[in-house]
Amino acid sequence: MASVKNKMFRERLHKGYAQSMEVTNVLADEKSQYQQIKIFDTVANGRVMVLDDIVQITTRDESAYAEMLTHLPLLEHGKATRVMIVGGGDLSIADEALKHKGVKEVVLVDIDGRVIELCRKHFGDMNARAFKDKRLKLEVADAFEYLGRPEAKGRFDLIVADRPDPVGPGKALFGDHFYDRVRGALKPTGFATFQTGVPFYQPWEITEALTELAHFFPQSGLYLTVVPTYIGGFMALSWAGMSKPLGTPAGIRRAAKAYASAKLKTDYYNPEIHAAAFAFPEWIKRLQPKKRRR
User: Fold this and answer.
1) What integer pLDDT is reported at residue 3 of this predicted model?
2) Quick one: pLDDT at residue 170?
3) Are residues 33 and 84 in the same domain?
4) Are residues 155 and 284 in the same domain?
5) Domain co-membership, 211 together with 251
6) Which pLDDT value is given to residue 175?
7) pLDDT, position 28
8) Total structural domains within the chain
């Protein structure tokens, strides 16, 4: 990677392909207990945070990620009161969840407290409101361990896994043991949503995630968003439900009605995008286990 001190950042997440950003100001560049944290301003993508040289968030396109992981399941659920966020130390997802007046508690569990501290300092335009909200509870802890605690059992209406790629401290947030603990922490009508990679460059993540989710949840599936700085086009978001599915015509209609009533202020999400998120190109359909194809 070219040093951000030389005014360029280059991400090489995918073999044989890279993206570069011209940097105008470096705000943080330090090693925490768990990972290297860099925060900097760019010419084209606003303020950016990268962990171990992998882009996590930019102020230019964070809405396409945070809003879709959050509003889509909350609006279809309709009666959610308790939300857990796995990771999410930048608080972008927490901020979206707290826009729902019916939500009484948002528990954010991130293993790296330094990420939370730096994001509070440098991403205030995005998260200052969330930090001030009394419904937010921050836990600096291993989310995998937290999900196994007795107090987490059957507690949440929505669990959002804002997990990184399966490297470093994020490895524990993938696989059978993780999904088993997520299931145990959901209420009988609850949903969970997960970041599942960019299928153009990470096609195996869809197949693996949907196969594993089907072992633990009565309902599971996929929907799509587009986050330009998560390079490769579509980003796959997988979901799991304890009783009912997401993305049915009735669920989409219910969400549209709830969205109008809530008067949510969004930059990416709307009812039309909600419905379109469940339409897949043929090549993405082929990546899904047959019984999960729509």
Assistant:
1) 56
2) 46
3) no
4) yes
5) yes
6) 60
7) 98
8) 2
| Domain span at 17 | 4-58
pLDDT recorded at residue 293: 45
pLDDT at residue 177, as a whole number? 87
Residues 164 and 43 in one domain: no
User: What is the value of pTM for the model shown?
Assistant: 0.94
Same structural domain, 29 and 147:
no
169 and 190 housed in the same domain: yes
Catalytic: 110? Answer: no
Per-residue pLDDT, 294: 42
8 and 79 share one domain: no
Catalytic: which of 61, 110, 112, 162? 162
Angle at 92 between CA 1 and CA 108, to 5 degrees: 105
The per-residue pLDDT for 186 is 98
Same domain, 121 and 259: yes
Last residue of a domain, one of 58, 78, 95: 58
Mean pLDDT, 10 residues at a time, over the chain (294 residues)?
A: 72 95 97 97 98 96 98 98 98 98 98 98 98 98 96 98 63 69 97 96 95 95 98 97 96 98 97 98 95 50
What is the full DSSP assignment across the chain? ---GGGTEEEE--STT--EEEEEEEEEEEEE-SS-EEEEEEESSS-EEEEETTEEEEETTTHHHHHHHHHHHHHHHH----EEEEEE-TT-HHHHHHTT-TT--EEEEEES-HHHHHHHHHH-HHHHHHHHH-TTEEEEES-HHHHHTSGGGTT-EEEEEEE---SSGGGGGGSSHHHHHHHHHHEEEEEEEEEE---TTT-HHHHHHHHHHHHHH-SEEEEEEEE-TTSSSSEEEEEEEESSS-SS-HHHHHHHHHHHHHHT---SS--HHHHHHTT---HHHHTTS-GGG--
